[in-house]
């Protein structure tokens, strides 16, 4: 177990894939004196570098922001709602465990090729968790819904998962033990969750109290999120994930409650057909218009919500933005968490309710969108 946690093992993996490291002693110059050893590295294999940069992006916020709306607008909303629910629960538990354990990320001789997540703790790897949750939940939620080559789908899911996990080691962001525990924890969570996700989705879609429950539970989950002992972006990222899930399910719930969403006349498993040129053109239009409106929603909601929470707490917005991030700076924490929650919830809601209504008005909607229960 201790061997899997050692940074030397990660350094060997980096070296295997072409990251050659060297070290320089600390400078004796008083102006640059440091207790740390400066590490230099050379990337000798660009293929692995770009592959693993792409792999780590598959578990990043930018990917979720693009892939999830695209999936809802152009592929299948019923599968999308279930996958988002699984992803949210898996990520919340992973992020919370990370801040409870407070294990540091691997240090020298490991070279960190990215610094984006450096402030977060390392155990477990939530990238490894999402590497299981995303592709395998799509596979499990579509296996009885569509007619397709299941072994090919399994191969894609395994490759997806493998590239993300290896990317975290290659970039020096996690130990081997972090990745293994992340994989195991995701499997442990999904084992009871996947069989009941249909029932959860049905309740959230049809019950009149589900929006109230979603709002209350998600806000309590953010308020009582584990104390990390220091400021990290983990709590804010978790708030964004929860609020996107809330917005998506509230939007779908409103579609159902207004009678817009009805059951399909067909019975699964559905045959997958190649789209026509007209369908491809509508897909492009939906994607371009949809993302433009998502960006507009983000800009308006972020500005308005930040100003609102600052006014509520009687804080100057410009001063608060420039203040230091710390656990003691409670007003900044409240404002930023509230802003992220409102902004991402509005994005999720608009992606499922307002934007599809516009697609319908423009006669470019996906015809099965409102029959996916």
Tell me what you see in this structure.
The structure is a single chain. The chain is built from 14 helices and four strands. The chain has helices at 2-5, 7-16, 46-57, 61-74, 77-101, 126-142, 150-170, 176-206, 210-223, 234-257, 277-312, 317-322, 330-352, 354-361, and strands spanning 19-24, 38-43, 146-147, 270-271. Residues 25-37 have low confidence and may be disordered. Helix 4 (61-74) packs across helix 11, helix 6 (126-142) packs across helix 8 (176-206) and helix 8 runs parallel beside helix 10 (234-257). The protein has a two-stranded antiparallel ribbon with strand order 1-2. The chain has 373 residues and is mainly α.
pLDDT < 50 runs, ≥5 residues: 25-37
Q: How large is the share of residues in beta strands?
A: under 5%
Tell me the radius of gyration: 22 Å
What characterizes the major β-sheet? 2 strands, antiparallel
Structural class: mainly alpha
Helix content: 55-70%
Distance between the termini: 45 Å
Q: Please count the beta strands (DSSP E, at least 2 residues each).
A: 4
Give the overall pLDDT as a whole number.
87
- Annotation field: number of helices: 14
Strand order of the largest sheet: 1-2
Please write the string of helix (H) and strand (E) elements: HHEEHHHHEHHHHEHHHH
Q: What characteristic shape results from the CA principal axes? A: globular
Features:
4 strands, 373 residues, mainly alpha, single chain, 14 helices
Outline the fold blueprint.
Layout: H1 2-5, H2 7-16, E1 19-24, E2 38-43, H3 46-57, H4 61-74, H5 77-101, H6 126-142, E3 146-147, H7 150-170, H8 176-206, H9 210-223, H10 234-257, E4 270-271, H11 277-312, H12 317-322, H13 330-352, H14 354-361
Helix pairs in contact: 3-7, 4-5, 4-11, 5-6, 5-8, 5-10, 6-7, 6-8, 8-10, 9-10, 10-13, 11-13
């Amino acid at each position: 177990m201790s061997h899997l946690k050692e940074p030397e093992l990660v350094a060997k993996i980096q070296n295997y894939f072409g990251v050659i490291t060297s070290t320089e002693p600390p400078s004796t110059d008083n102006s640059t004196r440091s207790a740390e050893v400066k590490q230099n590295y050379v990337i000798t294999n660009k293929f692995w570098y770009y592959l693993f940069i792409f792999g780590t992006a598959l578990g990043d916020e930018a990917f979720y922001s693009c892939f999830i709306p695209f999936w809802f607008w152009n592929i299948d909303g019923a599968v999308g709602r279930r996958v988002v629910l699984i992803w949210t629960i898996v990520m919340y538990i992973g992020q919370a465990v990370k801040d409870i354990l407070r294990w540091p990320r691997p240090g020298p001789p490991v070279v960190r090729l990215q610094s984006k997540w450096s402030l977060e703790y390392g155990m477990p790897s939530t990238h490894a968790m999402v590497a299981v949750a995303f592709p395998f939940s799509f596979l499990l939620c579509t296996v009885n819904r569509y007619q397709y080559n299941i072994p090919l789908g399994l191969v894609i899911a395994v490759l997806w998962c493998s590239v993300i996990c290896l990317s975290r080691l290659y970039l020096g962001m996690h130990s081997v033990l972090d990745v293994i525990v992340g994989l195991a924890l995701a499997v442990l969570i999904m084992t009871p969750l996947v069989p009941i996700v249909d029932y959860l989705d049905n309740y959230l879609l049809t019950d009149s109290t589900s929006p109230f429950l979603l709002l209350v539970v998600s806000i309590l989950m953010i308020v009582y999120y584990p104390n990390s002992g220091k400021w990290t972006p983990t709590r804010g990222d978790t708030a964004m994930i929860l609020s996107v899930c809330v917005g998506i399910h509230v939007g779908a719930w409103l579609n159902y409650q207004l009678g817009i969403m009805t059951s399909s006349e067909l019975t699964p498993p559905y045959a997958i057909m190649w789209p026509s040129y007209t369908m491809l053109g509508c897909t492009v239009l939906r994607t371009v218009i949809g993302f433009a409106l998502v960006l507009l929603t983000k800009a308006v909601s972020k500005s308005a919500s930040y100003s609102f929470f600052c006014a509520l707490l009687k804080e100057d917005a410009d001063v608060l933005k420039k203040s230091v991030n710390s656990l003691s700076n409670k007003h900044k924490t409240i404002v930023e968490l509230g802003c992220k929650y409102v902004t991402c919830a509005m994005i999720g809601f608009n992606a499922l309710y307002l934007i599809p209504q516009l697609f319908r008005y423009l006669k470019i909607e996906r015809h099965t969108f409102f029959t996916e229960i």
